[in-house]
Design brief:
Elements (H helix, E strand, L loop, with lengths): L7 H7 L2 H17 L7 H25 L1 H4 L9 H4 L4 H23 L1 H25 L3 H10 L1 H10 L7 H24 L1 H6 L5 H5 L1 H24 L5 H22 L4 H27 L8
Helix pairs in contact: 2-3, 2-9, 2-15, 3-6, 3-7, 3-9, 6-7, 7-8, 7-9, 8-10, 9-10, 10-13, 10-15, 13-14, 14-15
Length: about 300
């Protein structure tokens, strides 16, 4: 049998580039939301690279740890490590290089606080969530979601963390992503329930049933609606954000109720896809509102 050689595209796939791009969007918005006159170009570039490399490194570890699970699931069975195209040792070396480079950049060119927080997120996702929580409890997404929610905080501290303090507004952005995570992943878990069951992963639809999961998605989307209003209520943002957040939140609630009363698997995937657009547009609105605030309606 001819040995298949991995290409650079296979290594890029290991990093989950689409996920990393969404993470970096929230991190960059976090940078521009910080109370500084402007974000230095060097900080923007280096912090983005550092946070991106850490996220990519964690993703590679996820590929290695979950390779046996990946072979059982339709959306993941062609992943480079699962197919053997990339060896475990090569993937681990790649993850190590990404992670060490990330820590070097963030610690020496950004600040220690951002480096330590990024390290905590990397360890939390790559090891605590992937190696333990994912297989231990149906609340894996809820508990492990904190690791994926910190990028806005990392962006904020990259430009405003030299004193070692964490601003409450940065934590507010973390809260929004944290509350968004369960309905986002549970919608996908409903769509992929049989595959998670086959892989013996205790996702909520597997352990507690689809109807219970749908009810929880409704509850979380309602909670997310109110969490999304907090930036406006505390004076962090203004009318542009308020309008966009309200519309996005109501649409998410609509999808959640539609999912609750539908037996079509496609609705679960539609909800999952919308949740991605929700987070992207919400953070873009936060950024636009911050740079072009509307304090009152002008007739």
């Amino acid at each position: 049998m001819t040995e298949v050689t991995a290409s650079w595209k296979d290594y890029i796939e290991l990093t989950k580039p689409k996920v990393v791009l969404l993470i970096l969007l929230t991190a960059i918005v976090g940078m521009y939301m910080a109370p500084v006159e402007s974000v230095p170009l060097q900080t923007l570039i280096l912090a983005t690279i550092g946070i991106g490399f850490a996220s990519a490194g964690a993703a590679v570890v996820n590929h290695v740890v979950d390779q046996h699970i990946d072979t059982l699931m339709a959306r993941t069975f062609k992943r480079p490590v699962a197919t053997g195209k990339i060896k475990n040792t090569h993937a681990i070396i790649f993850a190590t290089l990404l992670s060490l480079t990330s820590m070097y950049i963030l610690f020496y060119y950004i600040n220690a606080l951002t480096a330590y927080l990024t390290l905590g997120g990397l360890v939390g996702y790559a090891f605590v969530y992937t190696m333990y929580l994912k297989r231990a409890t149906p609340q894996n997404i809820v508990i492990g979601g904190l690791s994926g929610a910190i990028p806005p905080l990392l962006g904020w501290t990259a430009v405003d963390g030299h004193g070692g303090d964490i601003h409450p507004y940065a934590l507010l952005m973390v809260l929004i992503v944290f509350v968004w995570t369960p309905p986002h992943f549970w919608a996908l878990a409903i769509f992929r329930k049989e595959e998670y069951a086959k892989a013996d992963i205790p996702m909520l639809p597997v352990t507690h049933g689809i109807e219970f999961t749908k009810f929880n998605i409704v509850l979380y989307t309602i909670l997310l609606f109110f969490a999304g209003l907090l930036p406006y209520l505390v004076g962090m943002s203004y009318l542009i954000y308020l309008v966009v957040s309200s519309i996005l939140g109501l649409i998410f609630i609509y999808y959640a109720f539609k999912l609750m009363f539908s037996n079509e698997r496609k609705v679960a995937m539609d909800t999952f896809k919308y949740s991605i657009y929700y987070l992207m547009i919400l953070f873009v609105a936060l950024l636009v509102d911050h740079n072009y605030p509307i304090y009152y309606w002008q007739l």
